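Open question from group meeting: does this chain pack into something compact, or does most of it stay loose? Before anyone orders reagents, we agreed to write out a predicted structure and look at it together. Recording both the input and the output here so the notebook holds the full record.
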Amino acid sequence: MKNKEINVNDFFAFLLKTNEEMQNRVNIDEKDMEGLSNLKIQKLLYFIEANFLKKYNTQLFSNDYYVWEYGPVIPELYKQLKKFGKNPIFYEEFKKKWKL
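Structure tokens returned:
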């Protein structure tokens, strides 16, 4: 299988959007919606990458993970998201800040 690595920023935006779409589909009130924190995003990406690597024997992203105190981190993505602090990140807010 020839690997066409996926851009981690595009995939991260996809996760945010999908998270909100799924909550909308099950009629969760906007005030009760849960965004994804930087920590949750890092963990999700790591588990998705690990599963992909195990199944297809190739990386999904070209980024390297580093072991930090709370788990694996892609430093480049962490730096982009640290402005959100521990706060949840929602797709619409992210889209406005990054002009997607």
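Observations to bring back to the group:
The chain has one domain: 14-26+35-98.
The chain has a mean pLDDT of 88.
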